[in-house]
């Protein structure tokens, strides 16, 4: 047991609000979807029951449609914008109106396999909700083949250059005055721009205007892009959910069907010109022509290939620590600006799980060692400059602590 292990556990406890965990106090004062799934994995290293509690509170927010929202606003907090008054989804508890990377089944499998006896009944209770959420992804968000997002926030990789071509089509000029709260916590250089926020809010206003009707948002909303990152996470999550279903004695043929259909859509996000998987504007078919870290999640879904490995090593070798969130050899790269270049320990952990499964344990170990060095040098920050290690964003961050305990240490 090292001091850093103690610190990581203390961060999970400090951010624990009783059944759900905040990403970090101040900057993110609510429950976030994929943060919570990582938190559960972290808790499972020292408190298995608390891990399942985390997944329970997350899945309890499920909409009638099956969607699990990206934020659950358990208690009002003026420190975050946009809050429940802006989203106006009419849910109880209040939630946002979009989803986030569906990694809960991936984490549920990891947690279940850490202690199957303790987890079996907890999993049995959770399983139908996971199936309903995956069905929602299949029926609502995979209508074009790959997984589509209707808002950059849905991707989890908010301002990455992948979305620039889609954001160009969003008119943020009609958004009324509002006050950003993130800039009271983190330097503006490390956060999205005002132009980005105007557009983020314009997309929220569209959803609110159509009463959060999924079909209308997909058919007429201001933003619709195929996301390689979510596509691969969903594909892996379908496979893991099928494994869990089999362990419970369930018929998993429907889930296997979703996975087969999604896998057959992967050629639609392969960009020959880029030699990599790529985001795509589903309004006009255009590729983003940007190498982003979402492409490397292909390994998580068993979809790696030699061209992708060449691209991975090119981008990775161009920096010093971790896989960058955007291509260091393009003009849009910024090593401190959120998802436009920094390395994110959680994404590194997912890529490494994939690399290990692909037989590239050498690369997985390199990624682990580089990520560990960042955390050892600076602590549990949200993200890091991959060139000079500068810690960025929020500190005492739940998901960074969680992946320290599960993977990086
Ligand atoms: C970031 O996103 C939120 C909006 O959802 C924000 O900036 O206000 C992203 O890094 C996202 O992936 C993450 O889940 C969230 C909480 O850590 O913060």
UniProtKB/TrEMBL annotation:
It comes from the Bacteria. Keywords: Glycosidase, Hydrolase. GO terms for molecular function: Glc3Man9GlcNAc2 oligosaccharide glucosidase activity. Residues 28-400 form the Mannosylglycerate hydrolase MGH1-like glycoside hydrolase domain. The keyword Hydrolase applies. The keyword Transcription does not apply. GO terms for biological process: oligosaccharide metabolic process; protein N-linked glycosylation. This is Mannosylglycerate hydrolase MGH1-like glycoside hydrolase domain-containing protein. It comes from Roseobacter insulae.
């Amino acid at each position: 047991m090292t001091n850093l292990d103690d610190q990581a556990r203390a961060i999970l406890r400090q951010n624990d609000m009783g059944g759900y965990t905040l990403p970090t106090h101040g900057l993110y004062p609510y429950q976030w979807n994929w943060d919570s799934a990582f938190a559960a994995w972290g808790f499972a290293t020292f408190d298995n029951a608390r891990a399942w509690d985390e997944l329970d509170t997350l899945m309890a927010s499920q909409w009638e449609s099956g969607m699990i929202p990206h934020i659950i606003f358990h208690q009002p907090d003026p420190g975050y914008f946009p809050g429940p008054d802006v989203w106006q989804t009419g849910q109880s508890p209040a939630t946002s109106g979009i989803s986030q990377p569906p990694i809960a089944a991936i984490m549920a499998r990891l947690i279940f396999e850490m202690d199957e006896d303790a987890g079996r009944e907890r999993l049995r209770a959770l399983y139908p909700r996971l199936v309903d959420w995956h069905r929602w992804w299949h029926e609502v968000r995979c209508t074009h083949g790959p997984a589509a997002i209707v808002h950059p926030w849905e991707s989890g990789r908010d301002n990455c250059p992948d979305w620039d071509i889609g954001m160009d089509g969003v008119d943020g000029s009609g958004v009324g005055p509002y006050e950003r709260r993130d800039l009271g916590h983190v330097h503006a250089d490390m956060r999205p721009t005002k132009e980005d926020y105007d557009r983020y809010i314009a997309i929220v206003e569209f959803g609110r205007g159509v009463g959060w009707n999924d079909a209308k948002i997909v058919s007429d909303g201001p933003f619709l892009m195929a996301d390689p990152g979510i596509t691969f996470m969903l594909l892996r999550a379908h496979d893991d959910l099928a494994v869990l279903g089999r362990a419970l004695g369930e018929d998993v043929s429907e889930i296997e069907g979703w996975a087969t259909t999604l896998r057959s859509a992967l050629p639609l996000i392969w960009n020959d010109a880029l030699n990599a998987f790529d985001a795509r504007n589903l309004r006009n078919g255009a590729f983003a022509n940007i190498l982003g870290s979402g492409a490397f999640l292909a390994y998580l879904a068993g979809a790696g290939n030699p061209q992708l490995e060449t691209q991975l090593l090119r981008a990775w070798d161009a920096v010093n620590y971790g896989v960058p969130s955007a291509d260091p050899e393009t003009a849009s790269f910024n090593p401190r600006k959120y998802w436009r270049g920094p390395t994110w320990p959680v994404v590194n952990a997912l890529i490494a799980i994939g690399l290990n499964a692909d037989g590239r344990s050498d690369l997985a170990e390199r990624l682990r060692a580089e990520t560990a060095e960042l955390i050892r040098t600076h602590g549990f920050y949200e993200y890091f400059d991959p060139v000079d290690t500068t810690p960025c964003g929020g500190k005492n961050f739940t998901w960074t602590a969680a992946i320290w305990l599960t993977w990086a240490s």
